[in-house]
Inverse folding.
């Protein structure tokens, strides 16, 4: 089973939910994938020890000037302007390349082959409370995060339970993170921004055909707009996590949120039971 934990905006509590859910479900020997590769922080909450670290590359074009006749076909094909053909050379901008391979496939002179461009690392750690943490870390200055997210998701696919801690927003990194999941937990907050961005996230899960449920974090008793959205879309509210300053303090200090808010354990267990019923 693969559960994605996502939201339309940052700061709603995705990592809080993901790491706490991992602890509650420790008997499943879960794998948590921190797919927020631009600023991964699940490791700040979970005590772990590093097992392995692997470099990740993505393919980019390399020009053989001995074969190239500077016809410009590769530049015409590229929708992202990653290639510029001059009179006697071809400029390749790896940061703009989306690694589609079209230039190499369609080059009439067969003058283009692909080489590996380093984009980041995947760190595998054993979590002391149980399970495995896979963390993707994107290299500074690298613009293309989906290939690294895909590589991280390609690890430990045989695990009984995989939890994806997704990046915020509804752009390509979030789509790649939730893709192929059995269920998506959408974490939101009872604010106008939370409601607006949640609607965008619901469109994304609907587009991909992934069943989803809502978790309202920092709940203080007022959620009429979110309840109305739930009724209108048919996406259930699975849980409401009350606002608690002790929980916030514990989380900021790197202490166990489950110890700061004991009721959180039963809330997360109930969420898991509802997910099992939904996808049974």
């Amino acid at each position: 089973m693969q559960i994605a934990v996502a939201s339309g905006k940052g700061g709603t509590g995705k990592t809080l939910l993901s790491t706490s859910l991992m602890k509650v479900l420790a008997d499943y020997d879960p794998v948590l994938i921190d797919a927020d590769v631009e600023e991964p922080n699940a490791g700040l909450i979970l005590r772990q020890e590093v097992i392995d670290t692997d470099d990740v590359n993505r393919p980019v074009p390399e020009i053989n000037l001995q074969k190239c006749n500077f016809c410009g076909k590769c530049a015409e094909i590229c929708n992202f302007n990653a290639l510029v053909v001059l009179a006697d050379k071809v400029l390749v901008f790896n940061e703009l390349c989306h690694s589609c391979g079209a230039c190499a496939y369609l080059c009439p002179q067969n003058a283009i082959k692909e080489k590996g461009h380093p984009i980041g690392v995947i760190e595998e750690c054993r979590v002391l409370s149980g399970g495995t943490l896979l963390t993707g870390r994107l290299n500074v200055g690298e613009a293309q995060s989906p290939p690294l997210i895909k590589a991280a998701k390609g690890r430990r696919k045989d695990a009984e339970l995989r939890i994806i801690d997704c990046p915020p927003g509804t752009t390509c990194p979030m789509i790649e993170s939730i893709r192929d999941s059995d269920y998506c937990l959408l974490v939101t907050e009872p604010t106008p921004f939370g409601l607006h961005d949640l609607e965008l996230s619901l469109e994304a899960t609907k587009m991909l055909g992934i069943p989803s449920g809502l978790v309202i974090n920092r709940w203080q008793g007022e959620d009429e707009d979110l309840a109305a959205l739930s009724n209108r879309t048919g996406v259930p509210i699975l849980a409401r996590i009350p606002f608690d300053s002790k929980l916030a303090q514990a989380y900021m200090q790197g202490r166990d949120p489950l110890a700061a808010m004991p009721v959180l354990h039963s809330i997360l267990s109930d969420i898991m039971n509802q997910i099992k019923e939904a996808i049974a």
Summary: The first strand starts at residue 2 and ends at 6.
